[in-house]
Sequence to fold (215 residues):
Amino acid sequence: MQVNNSITIEHISKCFRKIPVLSDVSAEFESGKIHGIIGHNGSGKTVLMKIICGLMDADSGEVFINGERQKNGSAYKSNIGAIIETPGFLPTQSGFKNLQYLASIRCKIGDEEIKSAMKKVNLNPDEKKHVGKYSLGMRQRLGLAQAIMENPELLILDEPMNGLDKDGVCDMRKYLLNLKSQGKTILIASHSAEDIDVLCDTVCEMDKGNLKKVR
Fold:
């Protein structure tokens, strides 16, 4: 393993009901860059991201984040921010209250950091509207605010542009590029060829559980 690799994946395999979802996946993702993963629905992208985050165990193989082996539950200990699938929030609470509750799990940040994260994604932390009345785009912005609020070194984002309008996509791209300029490492899965072209330094394709580098 090289020290400049934020993520090292070694021979990861995963099956559900004896059906292979990931087949002997190995890859290295260098620090301080944006890395894209493309592939159709069901190709294994989301499962791989969950395993990288420590939200799911692989059947075999290992994942290292900055040289430290990941295992189930590691997401709560590692310096990782993530959006995996549709962000889930308490529908009867405001965006700020939701993030406040989530921040209380690890007690690493306070209200000011939460407010700052919401402002960075163009959400008003003083807005009293319940999340259940948010648009899909607002939920996605709140999900990104959750991912960045503890200032992680590594972001893992599964379709982060879902539900965003044209201006929202533009804002998100600028923000992700700004995070990269700060030395953050970002792994992003997207169906948008334009997002991948604009954002990513490297691109891998997931196809039937196999990962290959295409750029």
